Amino acid sequence: MKSLREFYSRRAITALVLVAACTAGPKPEPEPVPVEGSTTVYLVRHAEKEISNPNDADPDISSIGRDRAKALASRLGASGVTTIIATQFKRTQETAQPLASQIGVAPEIVPAGSIGATDSAVAAILRHRG
Predict the structure, then answer these.
(1) What is the pLDDT of residues 58-69, one digit of tens each?
(2) Long-range contacts made by residues 48-53, C-beta under 8 angstroms, separation at least 24?
(3) 53 phi and psi, to 5 degrees?
(4) What is d(CA 5, CA 19) in angstroms, rounded to the nearest whole number?
(5) How far apart are CA 123 and CA 53, in angstroms?
(6) What burial class does residue 49 get, using C-beta atoms within 10 Å of its C-beta: 0-12 exposed, 13-18 middle, 19+ buried?
(7) Pick from 71, 70, 66: which is nearest to 28 by CA?
(8) What is the pLDDT of residues 115-127, one digit of tens each?
(9) pLDDT band at 11, cuts 50/70/90?
């Protein structure tokens, strides 16, 4: 039987290889090709918000959030986005702003956090289908 030391040594190397392999991450998938007449919806959660004041119910996004919003604009800028729908919260509008500026559209604001808010968002999407 192998020594206990050799057994654990081999396990440590295997774990290190697995961790190293995982950190590389999967290759990004290419953007899907839209079917004519279809509507593609990208659902994006707001970027990282500023947490300097935990009592602020409507915080701005942080500097990291602004960087993420710029990356989103870079990723989706040439994807054919024609409409941006955001909630009334500053963090969602600030996340959308770089892309909105890049493609030249004003975000459509829909309510969140109230009865019927989901219906408002779905209705906004349906107004822009196809």
Answers:
(1) 999 999 999 999
(2) 49/91
(3) -125, 100
(4) 21
(5) 34
(6) buried
(7) 71
(8) 777 788 888 888 8
(9) very low
pLDDT at 19 over 90: no
Taking the CA of residue 80 as centre, how many other CA atoms within 13 Å lie in the half-sphere pointing to its CB?
12
Tokens of 50: 């500023």
Burial tier of 72 (Cβ tally within 10 Å: 0-12, 13-18, 19+): middle
Cα–Cα distance measured from residue 103 to residue 73, given in angstroms and rounded to the nearest whole number: 9
Decide: 45 and 70 in contact? Cβ < 8 Å.
no
Contact 98, 72 (CB under 8 A): yes
pTM of the model: 0.69
* Residue with the two structure tokens 């729908």: 85
DSSP symbol at 110: E
